[in-house]
Amino acid sequence: MQPSLKYRALVVDDEVSLVHLQTSFLSDIGIEGVGVYSGIEAIHYLQSHQVDLIISDVRMPGAVDGVKLYDWISQNRTEMLNRFLFVSGDMIGMNAGDFFLTSTVPRIQKPFLWDDYSLLVQQLLGNEA
What we know:
Rossmann fold, 5-stranded parallel beta sheet, 5 strands
C-alpha cells in the first residue's frame, strides 16, 4: 500500500537516473518527488509551484548550478532556506568550495546511504515525513 504523500520535494540534478532514483525513494517514504534537470528548470518550477523541500545537486551544467539556485532561493523564496539539501559528488569543485567552507546548508555526499538521505530529509521536514 502506497503511503499518503503529504509533502512535495523538488529534486534538481542533471543526471536523469539520480532524479528518478531519488523521486522513487521519496515516494516510498511518503513524499511526492518532482524532478527537474537544471537550476534554470528549478527556478521556473518554483516560480509557479509550492514545495516543502528542495534537494539539489551542486555541480550542474548551464547558467544556474546548485549554489546559484540556493542564492536565488535566498533572494526569492526565503521560507525555503531551512528546507534545502545539497546532494553532490563534489563539494569542493568549482565555485562551491568557498560556499561550503562558510555555509551551514545541509549536504550529503554521493554516493550516500539511503538511510542517511532519509534521515536528513526527515530532519528538514521536522521529523514529520
